[in-house]
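Hi Q.,

Before the meeting this afternoon, I wanted you to have the pyridoxal-5'-phosphate prediction in hand. No need to reply - just skim if you have a minute. The sequence and ligand are here:
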Amino acid sequence: MAAAHSFLPHSSSSYLNPLKTPPNSLPSKPFLFFKPSPKPFNLRAVLSEKASSLPPQQQQLKHCFSKSQDGFLYCEGVKVQDVLDSTEKRPFYLYSKPQITRNFQAYFDALEGLPSIIGYAIKANNNLKILEHLRGLGSGAVLVSGNELKLALRAGFDPQRCILNGNGKLLEDLVLAVEEGVFVNVDSEFDLENIVTAAKIVGKKVRILLRINPDVDPQVHPYVATGNKNSKFGIRNEKLQWFLDNVKSYSNMLNLVGVHCHLGSTITKVDIFRDAAVLMVNYIDEIRAQGFNIEFLNIGGGLGIDYHHTGAVLPTPMDLINTVRELVISRNLNLIIEPGRSLIANTCCLVNRVTWC
Ligand SMILES: Cc1ncc(COP(=O)(O)O)c(C=O)c1O
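Predicted structure with the ligand bound:
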């Protein structure tokens, strides 16, 4: 059974750079029902009158859901039961738009002063309204398929701020990526071959980043660890020269602008990001020494989340960025980060009614 989507929206979704303080005045109507979108985006919005009045720093750490003394669950001060009662169909996912904003803002604030792109990893949740909201906040998008790219375009993302990842990209998806001018990460020998073919078909040069496997243990579950040597993702460092030689020989089709690594997901120790960044800037030095104009360091996905609701104090985006800030500045780089779950996971709950017990 598919669930619908309801939102507790922020007062305004658009505050592009410079993004400092989100506007906090709320429209006068307490409940706002959006016209349902055509399937599969059956959306409904419910607007909280009581958006948080906490200062931004505290807001970053605040969870939008709380259990009140009356025993009911509240989201941004709105009783979830009231939303359920005012909603025709269930189950539905209830999202807090202010929480999405706060999550994005935490990365945005951490990156202040650094030329950067926050690319939301669409795989974390590809709801169109969420994509549009994040795009309105200034987010780019990280994609793993042609369909995700189409979705990102439909949500209005700037293709120049989109990155296509994946170790099995299809030629047709690469063709679309080249046409739209998104960054493409090179993951393997055959991936490079396909990217060159796509560039030839479109007749356009493509901006690429080499996804290097830095062989750093992310200390996470093996199923989400992708940055150690035995993982199927990324280029092994001993193969790097082969890739550089090939990129050189296709310099009319390929423009190597950066390097990428993604160690894995659910990382909760920020030193791990720094260890990888140290290795990556060394690769950048080597690659630049061969005449390539490397402008971007992409450090992959964002922080882990409190999956088990233990109340564990997790590092913030500021903690993460602080571990790599000086390295990025020292090499005059643009930083790309690709958070997924840390932007969206704590913003939503599934609401349903028990029908029989
Ligand atoms: C290449 C890449 N970037 C970004 C992400 C998003 O990671 P996270 O949800 O941990 O931020 C993933 C997750 O699988 C990924 O594989």
